[in-house]
Each structure stands twice: as structure tokens, then as C-alpha cells.
Amino acid sequence: MNGSTFESLAIPAFRRLWIAGYLYFLAIFAQMIARGALAKDLEGSNAALGAVTLAFGLTGLIATPFGGVAADRFPKRSMLLISTGLLLVSSLWIAVAVQFGFISFWMLVTASAIQSAGFSFLSPARMAFTAELVGRDRLANGVVLTQISMNVNRVAGPVLAGVFLSVPVLGIGGIYWVGSAITAIGGLLFLKLPPGLPRPNATRSSATRDLLDGVRYGYTQWPLPLLLATSTLALIFGFPYVVFLPSVSEDLFGAGDTGFAWLSTIGAVGGLGASLFIAGRSEGSVAWKIQNLSVIGFGVGVAATGIAPTFAIAMVVMLLLGAASAAFQSMNATLILGSSEAAYHGRMQSLLQLGFNLFGIAALPIGICADKFGLRETLVAMGAVVTLVGAASIMVRNAKINIDGVQHQSRG
What we know:
With 412 residues, this protein is mainly α. The chain is built from 14 helices and no strands. It has helices spanning 12-43, 46-73, 76-99, 105-134, 139-165, 171-190, 207-218, 224-238, 245-253, 256-278, 285-307, 311-338, 345-373, 375-411. Helix 2 crosses helix 7 (207-218) and helix 10 (256-278) packs across helix 12. The N and C termini lie far apart (45 Å).
């Protein structure tokens, strides 16, 4: 393993931030398995799975831009604590409802919206805090380590959920109770962080003006427009595959909740492996090469999921798809933060996060298409679109490099 893979963890404050993030990621990914299983049990359709994700996406679409503004205007530690409180409420509510037998589908949808509000403020604050704590020289390493903490729990979370689902006395309710407990522990660790104060005079202008300034900056400062557009389109058309994994397992292969947990776990193993590999190899032009290859691999992997003839082959596809997805997200975030000024880090992360919110909105109509035209056909179409997005992104960047080269020669 590369000696510099974990170099940012030598910084005490970042290490505390990383551990706290590890804990809430563990809760979230265990609950993701539980939420998919619960939605399927309550309603029994792909549209229902999409509706839960739609609530997440719509809430985030509204809240995320202001989460980025808040991360640039207020102490980041305060934003992390408020966000963790929202995550705790969303988890604890479902735990109580399942425990006492009054759970309804609308509660699951509402909890998804509350969780989205928490993420909308937590993710920009955490990423901006990461950039502040590790510095520009270690930025790529810090971002990839954050991705590693997520991918470790994409393995651990489904395993934890699978264990609980296999023990009737624990079940879905137990997942939410444990998730609530470890989310609370993560919040206590955030208390030990430095304040993460914003830049001087950050609140002199209005929040709306800051928001508009961030949007202007993100879509005019090259290469941010290309990076943000590539990420947004790839997530909208490709990432809904995670929403439909319960149906891939049950409807395509008859593997049920256990198969769902295994597909999620093997995808996470691929993501973790890719993150560990690139942690010390993600500087300069290499980052662009990784992004270009991984976004194409992401699209191919989604399409391959739709044509996998057996569950065993689907597991192999999911391993590669998890690797491509993790590498793309890590490099895209690294390139965005590395290409922007520190004063805009929160807002740039919020613009990046909007892609996840829009994928949540797209999940419902895509779910309806899957119900009407077939899940396999829908996955193939999704993958084809993402592959085209990746190819277009490469072509645009190469064209911009060629234009800049010609202009440089003309001036010379």
C-alpha cells in the first residue's frame, strides 16, 4: 500500500472529522438497506422505491444551495452539529415507528426528506472543512480518504444490515436504533473540532447574493462548468441504479433482501479498492485521466447490470461498477475543489451535491419506466446515456485544450 495513502490522517483535527464521518456513513448505509427493504415491503413497486428517493431529492434540491452558502458564511463545526441533529431525528423517528408497529409509507418518505435536509448542510460543511484542515497540498488525499470512509461503510453498512435482517428479533427496527446511536456518537466527536471559522466579513452580503455569486463562479470559472455538468448528468442518469438494486436482486434473480445486501456490499468492495488505489496517485493530470476512464466505466457498468444473465455475473459487474463510481466521484470532487478558491469551497460542494438531489428526482420517472418497459431495458438505456456523457466530456476538454493552444501560439 502506498505510504502516502493515509497521510492526511496524521492531522488530529482531520482524523476526528474522518472518524465522525465514518460513524454517520455506517449508520446511513445500513439504513439505506433497511429503507429499501421497508419501502419494498410496504408498497411493493419500483415506483415506491423511486418515491422515497424523490423526497430526498426534492428536499435537497431546495436546501443544498443554501447549505453551501452556510458552509462559507458560518462556523463549519456548528453546521456539522445541526446537520447531525437532523440525521438523528430522521433515524430515531423510524426506529420508534417500526418498534411500536405504526410505521407507514408516508413516514418513510418524510424521514427521507429530513435526512436530505441534514445532508444538504452537512456535506458542504464537511468537504469545506476537509480542504481547510488538510491544506491544498493534501487536498486530493483528504477528499479520497473521505471517499474511503464512505466506501468502507458501503461494505460494513450492508453487512450490518444483513446480519440484523437475518435475525427477526432485530430486523429493520434494530438497524434504525443502532444507526441512531452511532449518529449521536459522531455528533459528540464533532464537538471536539475547532470552530472552522469562515473568511472575514463573510456575512456582509446577503445569503441570496452569496448563492448567486457561487452559481456564477461555478459556471464561469473553467474547468468548473465541465466538471459540474459531467457530474450532474452522470448522477442523474446513472446513479438511480442504487435505488433499483432491491428489484435487481428480487425481480431479476429471485435473491431477495439477502441478494440486495450482497450486491450493495460487493459494489462497495470495488469502490473501496479503487479509493485505496488512487489515494496516493491522484495529483495533476492523473486525476483527469482517472475521471475520464471512470465515468466511461460507470456508464458501461450500469448497462452491464441490465444484461447480466445470472446473479454471479451481476456480482462481478457490481464490483467493477462500484470501483468506477467511487473513482469518478473522488476525482470529480478533487478537481472541483482544486480548481476553486477556498472562499467558494462550500458552495462548489453544494453545486456538486445537487447532482445527487437531481438523481433522487429522476429516480421516480426512471422507476416508472422500469415498471412499464422492463428493468433490464431501463438499466441499459441509463448506462448508454452516462457513457455518452463521459465521451462528450472528454471531447469538450480536449477541444478547449486545443483552442487554448492555438490562442497561445497566436499570441506568441
